[in-house]
Amino acid sequence: MENNHNNNHLQPEESRFLSGPRSRFKELLFTFRVQYSFIRAFRKMHFIGPCVTVFGSARFDKTNPFYKKAEQVGAALANMGFTVMTGGGPGIMEAANKGAYEAGGYSVGCNIILPFEQKPNPYLHKWINIRYFFVRKFLLIKYSYAFVVMPGGMGTLDELFESITLIQTKMIQNFPVVIFGSEYHKELCEHIRIMAENESISPKDMELLFVTDSVEEMAEHIKTHAIERFKLVKKPQRPSWLFGEE
């Protein structure tokens, strides 16, 4: 069968990996690069938590009402003592980071390296540039005790359902998932209800989602289902010289 991937040399590394089997040496080399990405990220992000991750579109500018709402979300989370984590890019991600940053909280980002340039937004105290989407998605979940899903596109829905699936299958604990924007997400919530009616998910899975348009309701829900449930307390950092930490 003819190989149609003639432009492999122009593709990002993750895309080349997903394009089919390669030589044993290249496959092995890829695993080492992935391992290095994880280790570098773990060292960089070790002291950032506890976090709440905010998902949302990279395409909304500062005039968009959802951008302004995401700023309020970021500020509210920071005032509750959380580090606000996002994908580190523009749009909703920038707005949530900005809200936390300007409220005096801590703001971090996991920025993806794409063929077209995506720079980390200017409202980050700490960020890491990541080559692989699956590494980035892992990090956005690993350090967080709640997830806030703002209006977004395919990537946002991917992150939403990844989080819910991990909770549903008990791979992570029952952290609160807040869907922000009832009108924007109306058809999505209806489809989830249809899945429950047709028994492709359990009716109890509907309880994993909290839908709201209120920053205050979001904060109260996260306070009850994250801070109080998991008895979250911000612990002092204890860096180790052995690992080159400051």
From TrEMBL:
It comes from the Bacteria. Keywords: Cytokinin biosynthesis, Hydrolase. The keyword Hydrolase applies. Its EC number is 3.2.2.n1. Belongs to the LOG family. NCBIfam families: Rossman fold protein, TIGR00730 family. This is Cytokinin riboside 5'-monophosphate phosphoribohydrolase.
